[in-house]
Specification:
heterodimer, A: about 500 residues, mainly alpha, 5-stranded mixed β-sheet, 21 helices, B: about 475 residues
């Protein structure tokens, strides 16, 4: 604990870290505050939960609006953290505080790489790469996601694990409990640490006893927490819980839309190449305990990605962050190597060029991607306000990605949204998709009747409901709402 | 003759490691008291919610005790209970006493084997299987007490009474054949490790288990295993997930002395496989896993940890996990079906003319026990039939909308009633009210809705009326 506190105190050695942190925080807050809306519908699920906690001090577990009545299963710590500022300063505080939390990644990454390399340059470059990586900015700038708190907390934990000591144990346990309660994605850290212990065992370098004891606690606590919160979900869905019970067609789309080029840009070209090289070197050429720990985290993330055990974006996010940490180690090594060669006189220039290239290849695309992600959806989301003028008992059928918008902006029941746990998501998804794909109104009416929908929400005027007597248009510009005529509902 | 030092018991007794000291006896009393509270809580929680007997399977006991006339060799426990004026209450008391007696016997056995019995008994008492075995009617819990007592006497070198008690346990439940064979092979292993007969017995036990595997046509996948065997994922009866974690750690610790533990571990594996096909074996598996779980817990507590803080948290987590599994099991038992409306519907059906009732197989025992009508399917058929022709045909008919197919099926199998509850209408086999056969039931005159209350429907088939 002392080490962490000492590191965070004003110290000339850490001046670049603080400058980078405040600059990054300022950029994030400016970009985030330019829009009153979020970039995806899932953020509105989190926002609803946060606002509910701010009002009632307990999460909304039994909801009458989502799926026309269902139960939620999720880890609520992130929502509790944001609930207090929301209660004090209003709904927009959630976005600000989430961005402040996400900015802490700079401090955590800087400290971790500093411990790994002892080099300020490596720490600075590495934390810049992580902070401005397009995938991290898109995921956390204009969206509410537990990853915004999980990643900084996870990196602080990793920093402490790089030199695990009995004296650090209270803060290590605090962070372990925090990451376990923030998101099930803490499994990346747990799995990585377990791989690290196993690799050490295979390499006949038994892990320290304290490390073994710690991993047993982490494993047990993580299992217990997830078991406590997702037991019913596991009973209902089995191993599909790992994918949040996402319907197979949606999952297929996730992985079909995987674009190798997009993934490399997301990860960053240089961190990917140098990070993988550092991991390879540690595994097969020269063992360094700290680098092995980070390499194990990369291996765990790659296994999860390869096994499609997580949503693609989340897996890439973790891979990119761990690779960027290894990239820091490779900068240090490269700098040392250059000094031993005939290029030693030009090593400063070469390193400066490298840093510039990293900035160009990461920071600019990162900010550009985040801006693009923010702008495109604002007008579309505003249209959902009109749903609040529908009758209070209205149940609106639309595609899943509109579901959370219907409940948040319209405060009306939806038939489906993107929270798939504890519901029969596969059947419902197929049925709702049929409504929007069929050419026969009778077919659509059968599904509408099955789920008791009173309204249909579609994009654009080119649809089968426009001229059918069973549907009357209620409102719409970007999105059109049709009321299902009373006689056709039964 | 058992070899000297075989059980290492005399040393333990003299050194006070067994149940001889007042402190240990008080600890045992405390654990037995905890066991009593858990069993009584299971009954109390259920009664506070519903007067009906929990779980559909328990109705097999009620059906048997109400039908058995005289002593039946195939159902000896039920025959004995049938002699009582109030079989259910008597059986409840017997199971309660058996549960507490089994704890004491188990403690005595473990203490004589030289292990720390307190933690093993704690793991056993907090196991969901303990709650299920001693609060839900079954035919193995009573026999288990005799089996345990037999082992205890065997440890005391009282061979004849021991064989007699083990024989009684076999008489009370013939499925104890496998545990008896395993016990025999273990005794032989400890007395004459190189005896050729040992390999024969182990092979026989293995053959028995794998025959079960091949004869019983259930092939559990990973998820099915979770759902069928882990109580926290809905298995009833099942084992707790933290109990299994402790068991795993116990095995890891035991592996350091693998020569001593190889045979018991092999027996545990056989019992684990056997319990996939016969839930009676699960109780033996739980006893052995509790032994190893308790061993793990004692090792975790005694071992010098580098971080005392981690040690405390890990042990607290394990205890919380065990208590949590136990609590969840109590809750599930108190919430378990049947609902009052289901009982009411079958009591009403009892007064109707006799006929065969078509429903899901899992309601078979309950239908027969309460309504005295014969079910077309029951769980015995599900477990014992290899081809499951009736079950497949029934589900084809449930999902069919072909009027003539349904009519032929009903006539051919002499079915008079169809009993449908909410779970059938909104889950399996149907998901909505017009699905499959339900559409036909509501729209033809051959089927008459003779009972409808709180989602329970009883349809009567009139073969003489044919819809045009």
């Amino acid at each position: 604990m002392d080490n962490l506190l000492k590191s965070l105190k004003a110290n000339p050695r850490f001046l670049p870290m603080w400058i980078l942190f405040f600059a990054y925080l300022a950029i994030r807050l400016v970009l985030a505050s330019k829009s009153g809306y979020y970039s995806d519908d899932t953020s509105y699920f989190h926002q609803r939960q946060i606002e509910h906690i701010a009002e009632n001090w307990k999460p909304l577990l039994s909801d009458d609006l989502s799926y026309s009545g269902r139960t939620f299963a999720f880890l609520p710590l992130y929502h509790y953290i944001l609930a207090l500022p929301v209660a004090l300063f209003g709904p927009f505080a959630a976005k600000i505080v989430s961005n402040i939390l996400a900015s802490l990644v700079v401090l955590a990454a800087y400290l971790a790489v500093m411990r790994l390399t002892g080099s300020r340059l490596s720490s600075f470059v590495s934390s810049t790469v992580i902070a401005f990586s397009p995938i991290y900015l898109i995921s956390t700038l204009n969206r509410l996601t537990p990853s915004a708190a999980l990643l900084p907390a996870g990196l602080f934990l990793l920093y402490l694990l790089l030199d695990l000591k009995e004296g650090n144990m209270p803060i290590v346990l605090f962070l372990t409990i925090t990451v376990s309660l923030l998101s099930s994605n803490a499994i990346y850290l747990l799995f990585g640490y377990t791989i690290y212990i196993l690799i050490n065992f295979v390499e006949s370098r038994p892990a320290q006893r304290l490390e073994q004891e710690y991993v047993s606690f982490f494993l047990l606590f993580f299992t217990w927490v997830n078991f406590l919160f997702f037991k019913t979900a596991f009973q209902m869905h089995g191993f599909a819980v790992m994918w949040g019970n996402t319907p197979p067609p949606v999952l297929q789309e996730y992985f079909l839309s995987f674009n190798f080029i997009y993934a490399i840009i997301g990860l960053g070209v240089l961190p990917l190449i140098f990070g993988l090289y550092t991991a390879y070197k540690c595994l097969f050429v020269r063992y360094v305990r700290e680098i092995m720990l980070i390499s194990s985290m990369v291996i765990s993330s790659l296994i999860i990605l390869w096994g499609k055990l997580s949503v693609l974006e989340e897996a890439l996010l973790f891979v990119s962050i761990f690779l960027a940490l290894l990239f820091g180690a490779s900068i240090k090594e490269m700098s040392g190597f250059l000094k031993k060669t005939k290029l030693s006189e030009k090593s400063t220039m070469i390193m400066a060029g490298l840093v510039l290239a990293v900035m160009l290849l990461n920071v600019i695309p990162g900010i550009a991607a985040a801006l693009e992600d923010r702008v495109s959806k604002e007008e579309y989301f505003m249209e959902f306000m009109q749903i609040s003028f529908l009758p209070e008992d209205a149940a609106v059928m639309s595609l899943p990605e509109n579901g959370n918008l219907i409940t948040y902006f319209g405060k009306r029941q939806n038939i489906i949204d993107t929270q798939y746990l504890l519901v029969d998501s596969e059947q419902r998804f197929e049925d709702v998709r049929r409504v929007f794909r069929t050419k026969f109104v009778l077919d659509a009416l059968q599904v509408i009747k099955k789920y008791g929908a009173t309204h249909i929400l579609v994009h654009g005027e080119n649809n089968i409901f426009r001229e059918d007597p069973c549907f009357s248009q209620v409102s719409g510009e970007f999105i059109i709402v049709y009321e299902v005529v009373e006689d056709c509902r039964h | 003759m058992l070899q000297p030092g075989f059980w290492r018991i005399h040393h333990r007794i003299r050194s006070g490691g067994g149940l001889q000291t007042l402190k240990n006896r008080l600890a045992l009393l405390g654990l037995v008291f905890l066991g009593a509270i858990i069993i009584l809580s299971a009954h109390g929680l259920r009664f506070s919610r519903s007067e009906s007997v929990p779980t559909y399977d328990q109705y097999k006991f009620l059906f048997l005790v109400s039908r058995l006339d005289g002593f039946s060799l195939t159902h000896p426990y039920e025959s004995l209970m049938a002699m009582a004026e109030n079989p259910l209450s008597v059986s409840r008391v017997i199971l309660f006493v058996s549960g507490l007696a089994t704890c004491i016997i188990f403690a005595a056995i473990i203490s004589r084997l030289g292990s720390d019995w307190k933690y093993s008994i704690l793991v056993f008492i907090l196991s969901p299987m303990f709650i299920h075995s001693y609060s839900v009617q079954n035919d193995y819990a009573f026999a288990l007490m005799f089996f345990g007592l037999g082992i205890l006497l065997l440890l005391n070198q009282l061979h004849f009474p021991s064989m007699l008690l083990i024989g009684i346990s076999f008489f009370l439940n013939q499925r104890f054949f496998l545990p008896i064979i395993l016990l025999l092979s273990y005794v032989l292993y400890r007395t004459k490790p190189k005896a050729a007969i040992l390999s024969v017995i182990v092979m026989a036990a293995s053959t028995y288990v794998f025959t079960l595997v091949s004869v019983w046509s259930i092939t559990p996948g990973p998820q099915a295993i979770m759902g069928e065997f882990i109580s926290d994922f809905g298995a009833d009866p099942g084992v707790g997930i933290f109990e299994m974690l402790l068991f795993g750690i116990g095995i890891l610790y035991a592996w350091r002395k693998k020569k001593e533990h190889i045979m018991p571990l092999y027996l545990v594996c056989l019992l684990a496989i056997a319990s996939a096909f016969d839930k009676t074996m699960l109780v033996f598996f739980v006893i052995l896993s509790s032994f190893y779980g308790g061993y793990a817990l004692s090792q975790l507590i005694r071992r010098a940890w580098e971080s005392q803080m981690l040690k405390s948290y890990v042990i607290i987590l394990f205890i919380c996990g065990l208590v949590f599994s136990s609590g969840a099991s109590l809750k599930r038992l108190s919430d378990s079906p049947p609902a009052e409306a289901e009982i009411l519907s079958l009591e009403w059906l009892k007064d109707q003319e006799k006929g065969i009732v078509l429903s899901d197989f899992k309601y078979g025992y309950m239908i027969e026990a309460i309504s005295s009508q014969k079910p077309y399917l029951d769980k015995d058929y599900y477990l014992q039939s290899r081809d499951k022709i009736r079950i497949n045909a029934t589900y084809e008919i449930f999902m069919s909308r072909e009027y003539y197919d349904i009519r032929d099926f009903m006539t051919k199998n002499s079915i008079t009633y169809i009993w449908v509850n909410g779970e059938m209408k909104q889950g399996f086999p149907w998901t909505n009210e017009d699905e499959g056969m339900q559409l036909i039931l509501r729209n033809v005159q051959d089927f008459e809705l003779i009972f409808h209350y709180e989602g329970i429907e009883i349809w009567k088939f009139h073969p003489e009326l044919q819809d045009s």
